[in-house]
């Protein structure tokens, strides 16, 4: 049984060079420099050298719905490639290309005019006498650096990649480094507690870990303990209550970057 509940969803326009996580071992920009809201975690990934829409949420079920490949959320990218793809290359991208981890699923691919975007810092590398072309690519998979590998496989390396849409959520109206917060209905499976999203936050950040309720047996034993310095009263011979098993849904696995 599905029990609709409200969840926080953040639509973030990730700048070039920012990691899609809140912590990093090396000195590199992370989400912590842009998003101060506690208890939210990315629903999916976006490479550090890619830009655009990254979704974050405080709800594990919503995170799972957005990021797990089983739900096949369409992800739309605007991709600037080197050279001018011909009809053969476009057909290969649409039908599927062979990568080192297998054939890609069919994708929606079309040529588009150069979109009106912010300037990237640093700018893309340009080579004299070699044109570039913008593509719109829609995929439902989430393999590591998939779009870049797809265009390279047909002879057109990606120069710039901007994700503009995930499912029904778009980047429209959000400047680089800024975000918009929405409250949405999130699916909650019956007979489970609210599932926290998976991910890591900087040390000291609020995690929202619930208070652990003591086991009924431990509570009962403390109730029978006598005052300090006096022996405890005899334990009751009444039948002990049966243990209750609480089934919890596993946390979702965050898919690799696209």
TrEMBL record:
Protein name as it appears in the record: Pseudouridine synthase
Family from the record: Belongs to the pseudouridine synthase RsuA family.
Keywords, ordered alphabetically: Isomerase
Domain Pseudouridine synthase RsuA/RluA-like, chain residue ranges per copy: 9-153
Enzyme Commission designation: 5.4.99.-
GO biological process: pseudouridine synthesis; rRNA processing
Compositionally biased tracts (Polar residues): 190-201
Region (Disordered): 180-258
Organism of origin: Cellvibrio japonicus (strain Ueda107)
Biased composition (Low complexity): 230-244
